[in-house]
Amino acid sequence: MEQIIEILGEEFKAYLEEVENSDDISLDFVESMLTEKINGLVCRYLGTLYKKKDAVLLADKVLRKTKGLVVERRNEGRTVLSVFGSVRYERTYYKKASGGYEYPIDAIAGVKAYDRLSEGCSAALVDSACHESYELSCKEVTNSQVSKQTVMNKIRKTRVPDTEPLAEKKKVPILHIDVDEDHVALQKRGKRTQVMTATVYEGVQKVCKGRNKCINAFSISGFGSTEAFWEKVYDEIDARYDLSNVKMYLHADGAEWIQAGLDWLPKNTQFVVDRYHVNKYVVKAVSGIPEPTKSIYRNTIWNTLKEGTKDFLNDLARSMEDSYPYRAETISEGMGYLTNHFEGIQLNYTDKNASCGSSEPHVQHTLSHRLSSTPMGWSPKTLEHLAPILAAGVFTFEPEEKKQKWDDPKPLNATKAYRTQKVKKVTNSSGLVDPEKVVFLPTHNYKKTTLGDVLRILSRN
């Protein structure tokens, strides 16, 4: 082994000398050249290492006898794609005294029976696919040695690990939860779905003028069942925080599925409409009204939301509709939203701790940049795995299901226990069925008749 290391070391020195003697020593050139060459060295080293380990086990007859291994075949090649490139090595196939067969070196290398990619390479593909297309992920991670289908398959084998409850949960006075959804196109033409996301944080911290940062933020995302999503949100919060004396604020746009989360969260949780959506519907309510009346209405609405009453807001809405009947539908939609969520809007002004939420930026940062910012269609099965990863930023691979071996007995299908009679037809030179070469196959589906008895006798001859 020392000889191999010495040879590889000499090659590495030669690469460095090549750099020193090159006219181009820019970082771009050196990175490109050395990365490829060093990765090649690592792959060759690993191949040699595994081959040596296999030879050591093959030569140690005492150890093989202890483990109950009998040589079945030797020098069987295996190629695995890693983050360094293709690692090729040869190993020995053993029969186990306990039953079955195995490649001990595959276990040492951490390579499963049907894997073409190492786990590190698979993880790199999934991580890359969280930020860019499948095609670019293939190109950057494996130099296009795998297909886009492979990347998708790897995503579908992942899951976000459950958060282990802390031994001593954190005690905080206030928690904020920003909740919203991203509208994602499905592969079926014209079909869209929503992917839910929630970001939990302890408050905001000023970074610079006009920019704040969420304190200890973490995100949860889900696709499909809203009940399962809210259960996951609660479990993630409960695993980290002591919820006995914490005040919670749920910031969102007021959708029914979001307000349903109040049933899952602690009782001292209050719903707050974030200012982004308030401003959106204020603008909608006054759109199309000419100036300066438009500004007067807008200022009146804002003042009413801050210090007024819901009744006055309803009166103002009717007055606007009467004055501008051609805008009545838009005014009704905008003012209706403000009226229906009046208490949740006023909380921004009556409670100083409630005014820091904003759900839209979290959706853009967590989901939209990958799922909906470009024209693409997604499979629900892929969204089920990818959406939680985009929010959590971590993932693990699901354990492989045990595949049925060829020699495993397969249960009979009860519905096919009785088969219909089959006749194997053999044609003669003229293309017609030759009656002398017709073979009647044994069957279990027959009636007890004289003709049936004759056919059974002929099939045995």
The major beta sheet can be summarized as: 5 strands, mixed
Query: What's the structural domain tally?
Result: 3
**What is the mean predicted local confidence, pLDDT?**
82
- The number of helical runs is 17
Global shape: elongated
Strand content: 15-25%
Number of strands: 14
Terminal residue distance: 66 Å
Radius of gyration over C-alpha positions, nearest whole angstrom = 34 Å
Q: Fraction of residues in helices?
A: 40-55%
Give the low-pLDDT segments. 403-426, 435-447
Spatial strand sequence of the major β-sheet: 9-6-5-10-11
| Secondary structure category | alpha+beta
Summarize it.
The chain is α+β, with helices and mostly antiparallel strands and 461 residues long. The chain has 3 domains: 2-115, no CATH class; 174-396, no CATH class; 414-460, no CATH class. The chain contains 17 helices and 14 strands.
Characterise the protein shown here.
Helix 1 (2-20) runs antiparallel to helix 2, helix 5 packs across helix 7 (148-155) and helix 11 packs antiparallel against helix 12. With 461 residues, this protein is an alpha+beta fold. Mean pLDDT is 82; it is low at 403-426 and 435-447. The protein is elongated, with a radius of gyration of 34 Å. It folds into three domains: 2-115, no CATH class; 174-396, no CATH class; 414-460, no CATH class. 46% of the residues lie in helices and 18% in strands. It is built from 17 helices and 14 strands. The protein has helices at residues 2-20, 27-59, 61-67, 104-109, 119-129, 134-142, 148-155, 226-240, 256-259, 275-286, 293-307, 310-323, 328-340, 342-350, 359-371, 380-392, 450-460, and strands spanning 69-82, 85-96, 101-102, 158-159, 174-185, 192-201, 204-208, 211-214, 218-223, 247-252, 269-273, 396-397, 423-424, 439-440. A five-stranded mixed β-sheet has the order 9-6-5-10-11. A three-stranded antiparallel β-sheet has the order 1-2-3, with helices on both faces. The longest helix has 33 residues, at 27-59.
